Fold this sequence. Notes:
The chain is an alpha/beta fold.
Amino acid sequence: xxxxxxxxxxxxxxxxxxxxxxxxxxxxxxxxxxxxxxxxxxxxxxxxxxxxxxxxxxxxxxxxxxxxxxxxxxxxxxxxxxxxxxxxxxxxxxxxxxxxxxxxxxxxxxxxxxxxxxxxxxxxxxxxxxxxxxxxxxxxxxxxxxxxxxxxxxxxxxxxxxxxxxxxxxxxxxxxxxxxxxxxxxxxxxxxxxxxxxxxxxxxxxxxxxxxxxxxxxxxxxxxxxxxxxxxxxxxxxxxxxxxxxxxxxxxxxxxx
Length: 257
Ligand SMILES: [Zn+2]
């Protein structure tokens, strides 16, 4: 084994010597495509459900790449074990990220009615407003909703609400309170697939890709993205912004004009 390593090392030095004596020719940037892609009418939103504690770890990835995300928070869970604290939410918010509502206790909204339904949606929003956040976006827990739940979301003052499937969404969306999202990002969703969702949408005429993330960790949950995969995705998104890709929070997309 040792002998083998020495041989490799020797080959390396021979190669290196060969390189230094070769005429100096500028090497082409092999990794760069001949012409950079120009995104025409494509928007992306990064959304995180539940306010999981590990979500705070991507704060620098977002800031370093000039990206803002939407964090849908279950206000009955914040400040408890496994969830972000009020201070962490405020840090994310002060960075330009959006805080949205995700109910008081993560109930399936098709199974709660009347005053309980209102409490889940409206009290949650009031809590988040009381923490000092401007709250206009909502996400249905598990993506479950019906006409009654949708109406309470409207009545509680939300300008938009996101489901968990049927994306990509069009611009403008056909139902602001039934926003369609890309398939769940799970632990085996690979980076090229996430990029392809966006490039294929752009090739097909554009639209709005709303990504739904949950945990950010290496193997802690089936609904998790690995930190290094998210870092690479964030870097790529950051770079593509100079090629015309628009990355905005859900609130920024829905409340502009
Ligand atoms: Zn959720």
